[in-house]
Amino acid sequence: MSRRPSRRDLLKLAPLAGAGLAVGGLAGLGRGALTRQSRKGTCRFCLLHCGIEAISEGGRLVRVEGDLASHTRGFVCLHGYALPEIVQSERRLRAPLVRKGERLVEVSWAEALDFVARKLASLREQHGARTLAIQTGWPLVRHPMQQVLHRFARAFGTPNVASVASLCEASLRMAQALTVGSKYPPLSKDLQTLVLWGANPERSAPAKTPVLFRHAEAGSLVVVDPTRTVLAKRAAEHLQVRPGTDGALALGLAHVLVEERLYDAPFVAEHTEGFDAYRALVANYPPQRVEALTSVGAAQLVRTARRLAEHRPTRAWVGLGLEHHASGVQAARAVVSLEALLGSFDEAWARTQLTPPGEDFAREPLPALYRMRTPAPVPPPVSERPIGYDDYPLFEVFNREAQGNLFPRAISSGVPYPVKALVLMGSNALITGPGAAAMAQAADALELLVTIDPFLTESGRMSDVVLPASTFAEAPTVDERDAVSDQGLVAPQHGSWPDWKIVFELARALGLGRYFEFPDLKALLAAPQLPFMEDPAHELRPAPGAAGRFGTTSGKIELVSRVLEQFGQPGLPEYTPVAEPTDAEFPLTLVSGPRTAAYINSQFRKVPALEARLSTPVALLHPTAATRLGLRDGQQVTLVGRRGRVTLRLTLSDDVHPETVVAPAGWEQANVNALTGADHLDPISGFPTLRAVPCRIEPASS
Q: Considering the entire predicted model, what is its pTM?
């Protein structure tokens, strides 16, 4: 008897099936039917939400231009200009797909939703509602659909909704709120020094590049990064830190400020708590020791600390390069504490809190990344705790959601309870999640896998059901809490449905329609909003009389965090060495996932204009290391780690740290997450180690 094919087997076969699904374009339109329209909207490919003007002809999006009246003043990046090619792509899904045997077969929307609803109802009956997990991806970051999905999950009865907060940005926001009391500290307009710490906004926030170049030209830019980026080459100082040692570097800079009395003593005395203990901590990080830990020279360390003190105010733009380590929260807290030493914050700044209108921050728990509110009728509360609460309770307290990095464990091992159904919305988690082998094993153990996406992604090919979603261009323009237009830049294309409609109709198929009796997303958001999420198990409120001060529990900047101590974590921003050090077998450090100009993780892989810019997965290696290993530029090499291996084309670059290999993520045929894993997570946030993974590099076998 032949074995049942695994989802990994189906993934290998899927490109052949996928080719057939992509055949067939839109019917031609007669010239008389063409009507030209221009609509303004917002691009949602990244967090900048650049203003755009879309031109359509005959209902087809044909061109995108920048909106000069928007906050980005007409800027459009490569991804924005590619929007018409994405929306009109012949490779988009044309109908829902349901797996029948080994094949995904096109079916009607009614049949697909009925299949999903029946299966979910059956699994809920067998295992309880908590057996359903929902994971969203980059397209839904800071999007009201998060509220809609939490409403759906609560109506169904599951607490398990996760977003990209599980491995992007939330770790930093937790560090900032734990230390200063605000999750989104604004960059001061009169700042004298800007430090890009593990961030490369030339790639991740290109609309900000002109401002950053002005800082570079003024000599007010400092970059901390293992790679010499475009901005690092223009910076007054580039500290080429060894991956995973950022916390030690921040403590070393603080050591110089304290030792030479260059810190803002009046500010520290009035506005911080725990300085004596913090001073004792940084005393252990003199420049010579920090040089040995970080590979940043002692002289450069001292020079940079003096520069930061001389040119105040100094602020740090912290990125994923700092977060994607097993001690990312504490490393980020070390950077925020360094800013506090320099007096970069004040009470007027502290009162600037990004909370919804009408909410008094002083009466709220510590700020969540997204405060949930919803219209009546409010679904009943869910008694179960989300996955991750037992391991990372502070993550749940701050974010009001599950820690998605633990979904594979729950699926494969039933810890803390079994997850049998997973819905991916705008997420290609089976490729982009840490630990490719564990993700594939989890996918095989699922009884229902549903992917909602405009394209047939790698995760979609392994799914039982794939539902074709509209792009943001085909839905009302939205911001974080409201819909600001009635329609999209164009109507939904290729038989796709907007995300909100998919969720509304699935809820109705499950008998939960009473919670979704709204004609559309805008109507739901416009209805009177009521409190939705209860206070977390531990209410963490500012001290009495703290209104108008910093939003921590003490009302001061907490160099020693009371909340962390309450949760059994070190209150000081202590440095912890990398979870997996290099050794003789794996002497190099893999830095995975840095942004490229063409792609954002696995997004845009099916867009010819962007594929042409980077068509082959590459690994960057310093020429010195290549010479030592006998490797040459352009040859095929294999990266080998403790969990797996992957083959890429070698590119030599003296911009990368001599001890590292740098490899972008998101490639199906060369997934660097074969080397990463979820077994060394940040003890506070549950973030994975993606930027300091031991490996070796060798010629690829034939």
A: 0.90
